[in-house]
Amino acid sequence: MGRCRRPSGKTQSGIDDNINWEARYSQACDDIKTGKFSGYAEAARHHGLKYQTLCNRFLGYHRPATQAHQAQQILSPAQEEVLVDWCIFLGLTGHPVHKKSIRFKVKQLSGRDVGPKYINAFLKRHKKDLRFCKPAGLDPKRAQAFNPTAVHEHFKLVD
User: Fold this and answer.
1) 0.70 cut: is pTM over it?
2) Is 137 part of any domain?
């Protein structure tokens, strides 16, 4: 019979779990600093974290992956936030955003070409804010009602 690996509690969903883990590690470090726990082992057990990783984080030997690999990232966190805001703005104004348009905008911001895997990872990182779906067409009756005369009359009523 083969070995059976005990699950570590981490799931494969990725980004959201990383944020949760980072919050737990920072909370454990804060608890150690304030004296809530007498040592690393006690804090690690309480927060469900690995002892060695907590020690390394507390002593400053290791940083979270998002901070440690900032030099390798194509876009800075601020640029990514601007890109997310741009996508949301276009969505609110009724202009559908395509993955190719995001790739083009990333190239404009960073000067580097990115592949489809980068866009999929970008969407996974920001899945709470961004969602892609097939756009629905405009109902012909609504399109017919949206004419210059109707718009002019509407704004006359508003004033």
Assistant:
1) no
2) no
